[in-house]
């Protein structure tokens, strides 16, 4: 049988877009400008180094492998002894090692330089574009210090190891290790939002420790060395520090029941655990567990914003890169007006998310150094941004995926399927949508400090008519919400969105190119509805779309 040449000609590969790799993930004007503005400019060289590493083929392969080879739980050894170990693929350890050695975990708490938390935030944003799942234990370790400091004795023992730049996996006595990781266990079967209903108990022991008995329905990263746990002490819900290995070298009675079979966030092991008289030490005042652990929750909420802003940027860059190379109907996709509009709309979303994320990191940095006004701004702007930006992420990643047409849906063509699977989790963590939005209302109702700090920040824009009009509307709605109290709950999502978008518009007006700031204000500040008309890409005429789209380009590593 002869095979005709004609038939083989149809196998020629045409119009396929080269994989997006070996590019500098940190080459993002909004990120670099924000880093400098918020006091972390001294970290730019390291940020670029990490950006180049995040974009390499080798790192992308580690990310893929860490997600293809799921963590595996081994509850018992061959002889039947409980071991409660989780095995990870070596690529997971690679990603963790880079994150810890670059100080993405608790390092800024040991760094006196102003802007240390901002530098860490920017690095976290860049490296989470290598792979997002391992950000969970990194983030919890960062946040644990904020709660641990409520108990100075424990902080003195463990903080130097939590801030150490050494990734030292394996279950051993914490004090014998070169570096530690920390997790958090609050959520129980009956509910995670209402932690006051927790049933896990903590019984005082004679030596000042407590014995914890109960369960946690979600406990991510169970291979961490230490956990901050909520349990009912005689005085009420209290925060505890619970080690996996006790000072005498024996395993603490924390038994991993199973690993969760999850939609996304696959590389990260999330588990169900039971405690059977597990030894723990109290952190903060007895009966004030929520107040103690809220310090940790606030820091992890910041990371939810940073991680989501990073995912929005990454999805947009992948989509723009594809649309520049791929052709249809005789032109590059990006030059077809309807596609230019989609990419431009995503670019606006990305610019606003990154700019606000870094402003919040700056506020967190200054609040940690005692700045009360920045703490007040954070009190309202952080839950609002956590609600809004995390909610935008699945929408953006889905739209970006479609820019690649059918290829976007294919696992080995781009990382967009993984980004889409990973996108919703930041909104669920640390207060799911409604709960986080309700926290905005709490901030408004308790005192006027938070709303005043927010409005002062927005009012720093002078002469921008649309922003000024939006600020006036927000001022009166904040006043109404404060007066209405719980009656304002029904409308709280809209308020959280309005706060975020108005603040984003104000920050862009002060800091971004006019084409971006103007287009954002025109498309997002309409009274009554906040955010663009969705789906993305429904932009009005008269905007400088090519200039907006130019902000999302992948530049080769160098
Ligand atoms: C992958 C993954 C990893 C996780 N890792 C951890 C971990 O390491 N440690 C940990 O402690 N937890 C962890 N969690 C749990 C997570 O924090 C909780 O799922 C979350 O806090 C919500 O709690 P819940 O699932 O019990 O939902 P519920 O509390 O039952 O809430 C269900 C829904 O009702 C809404 N809701 C609740 N109360 C109100 C109200 N008053 N008004 C209006 N709406 C309301 C919520 O917003 C939510 O949408 C993890 C979750 C996931 C998915």
**How many strand segments?**
11
What amount of the residues lies in strands?
Answer: 5-15%
Q: How many distinct helices?
A: 19
Largest sheet: 7 strands, mixed
Query: Helix share of residues?
Result: 40-55%
Q: What is the CA-CA span between the terminal residues?
A: 52 Å
| Helix-strand topology string | HHHHEEHHHHEEEEEEEHEEHHHHHHHHHH
Oligomeric state of the chains present here: single chain
Question: Which small-molecule species are bound to the chains here?
Answer: flavin-adenine dinucleotide
Q: Classify the secondary structure makeup into a structural class.
A: alpha+beta
Q: What does the model show?
A:
- This protein has 558 residues and is an alpha+beta fold.
- Helix content is 50%, strand content 13%.
- Strands 3, 4, 5, 6, 7, 8 and 9 form a seven-stranded mixed sheet that branches.
- Helix 9 packs antiparallel against helix 10 and helix 11 packs across helix 17 (492-511).
- The termini are far apart.
- The model has no long low-confidence stretch (mean pLDDT 96).
- The structure holds flavin-adenine dinucleotide.
Which SSEs are present, and which pair or pack?
Elements: H1 5-9, H2 29-37, H3 44-54, H4 57-68, E1 72-76, E2 82-87, H5 90-101, H6 116-127, H7 135-148, H8 152-162, E3 182-185, E4 201-204, E5 210-220, E6 226-233, E7 236-243, E8 254-259, E9 270-283, H9 289-325, E10 327-328, E11 331-332, H10 337-368, H11 372-403, H12 416-422, H13 425-428, H14 433-446, H15 449-459, H16 465-484, H17 492-511, H18 514-524, H19 545-549
Parallel strand pairs: 3-6
Antiparallel strand pairs: 1-2, 4-5, 5-9, 6-7, 7-9, 8-9, 10-11
Bound molecules: flavin-adenine dinucleotide.
